[in-house]
């Protein structure tokens, strides 16, 4: 059954928490929602304590009134199960459901998400309220989607209690087919006398005297992601039984260094993928982060997705919380649409008066409607209405970046050749020049179908299993262009080193063999010849020997002077590049330009400096988003029969003006 969102066009709204306000305020809420063009709000996210005052006793009267009011006002409800914040009474009855951190501290209730993901009492209580809610509102005319929980794992991705330990053992018994010897071999437990003779000897990777076992830690991360996924799936099942046709989502958080959940495993369990994205005050180019996030979410979704949360202005959880500058709210929201969002929502509708998030911005700020944010919110509503036809269109990438959560977890484990490698930074270093060049990219799993791509980049793929290895190298030998970053292919799915020389899995395809690694110290750099003038490498180097490949660049200083640093290999009917250091950003940009030009991957559009161009492709038209992040007004070429959707005007002379800070969305018939 295909469960799709019935709200037309680009959905618009935010988290709506009317239970935090006296009822007199609600009428004003919906009146202003209509004024802003809000079409869908997420309700009930943190309302458990009010819905179920005592175990098994419910009071749905308030929620009944909220949903009726929304329905009467023509606003759809994305109805949440409130399971991210169990009430105090639950923890008094079930203190064993409180989570234990890795240092053995039991956390207290008093905020949110303070439950153990493996707690049977929590699961039972969560499914009970989900079932009652599902049955009560399955046919409610306001309800268009289930918002299951909220940001799984945001605060409690790991619990180290004994219940979690037992659940971890069960998960391991399933994974290793009840074969303890298989686990011992996979974990390499002959090392340091770690051999297990009884499943009960296995505990979570709690703090220990020296470095813990890497595969133990890796399986633990996989278990923690799966433990939360199983809670999501259980709630979704209960809701499906009650309302088989309603779509379910849960909001991901793919950026913010959020490495807790393996979203490739999660995404297929969602009817509609949604994501939350927040800017970091310290990031001067947050437009790149938005694009990065949007491309990753669209790839997880395999098409359009919903932006479930972002902010109209400052958040409250950074050391200093920056407001948005003029036009930034609009650029941010439309940039998410450009990357495939079919819905734009905020945390939250009305700025809170009390509680831990009272200093967080909202669509309706503390200052009320006589405010810049409110004017921007109303204008955005009109913009999104003008973009209704964009819904359903999707990306056009010919280049893909490999992204894998196990590889992320593994490369950041302790006792690596270098403790300086950060997966997200390594990927962003390659994503950023592609973004600047206006190249469309998808993100892919190592074992994805790569047949629609000309170029596949693996900036950081420390861990890869045999299937991923065969898929990626087969892509190159079959005629594609593969580019691999240093310290990739080093280990298999159990974190065992692929012997015979580095970069293990990719040695043959790359036509190189490294016998020793020379990671660089913080601040250290080495000269490079063969690329841009005065180029340097930092972070990493290794003694690469050519085994069929040609050297494109080599080191001009340091112990590896004369050794290849970047190589290119003709492999089958394709090409495989190896980038064995981190070139300075300008050099990496020109190297990636060369690689993609050879691969025949072009920019979406050539645009003036500072103008981001993104394309969504629909059945009859392309939608070209032009976002001017620069200081000067610009003019971009478009097709002669194009229309600018935000203004509704036809375009004369084959070019469109985009003022500094402004956005144009151009429909080009195909
Ligand atoms: C999100 C969360 C929201 C709100 C928001 C504040 O992580 O889902 O409930 O806390 O952050 O930025």
Mean pLDDT: 97
Q: CATH homologous superfamily of the largest domain - what is it?
A: Glycosidases
Low-confidence parts: none
> The CATH topology of the largest domain, please?
TIM Barrel
SS summary, helix count: 17
Number of domains: 3
Shape: globular
Helix content: 25-40%
Bound molecules: beta-D-galactopyranose
- What kind of sheet is the major sheet? 10 strands, mixed
Q: Give the tally of β-strands.
A: 28
Neighbour order of strands in the largest sheet = 11-10-12-13-20-19-18-15-16-21
Radius of gyration: 26 Å
Percent strand:
15-25%
CATH class division of the largest domain: Alpha Beta
CATH architecture tag of the largest domain: Alpha-Beta Barrel
Structural class by sheet pairing and helices: alpha/beta
State the end-to-end CA separation.
31 Å
Furnish the topology, listing elements before pairings.
Blueprint: E1 11-16, H1 24-36, E2 40-43, H2 48-51, H3 61-72, E3 76-80, H4 88-93, H5 120-137, E4 143-147, H6 162-175, H7 180-187, H8 214-242, E5 248-249, E6 251-252, H9 263-266, E7 274-276, H10 286-301, E8 305-309, H11 328-338, E9 341-346, H12 372-386, E10 399-402, H13 405-411, H14 423-436, E11 441-444, E12 455-458, H15 466-477, E13 481-485, H16 507-510, E14 512-517, E15 525-529, E16 536-538, E17 542-546, E18 550-555, E19 564-571, E20 574-579, E21 582-583, H17 585-599, E22 611-617, E23 621-628, E24 634-637, E25 643-644, E26 649-650, E27 655-658, E28 663-669
Parallel strand pairs: 1-2, 1-9, 2-3, 3-4, 4-5, 6-7, 7-8, 8-9, 10-11, 10-12, 12-13, 13-20
Antiparallel strand pairs: 14-17, 15-16, 15-18, 16-21, 18-19, 19-20, 22-23, 23-28, 24-27, 25-26, 25-28
Bound molecules: beta-D-galactopyranose.
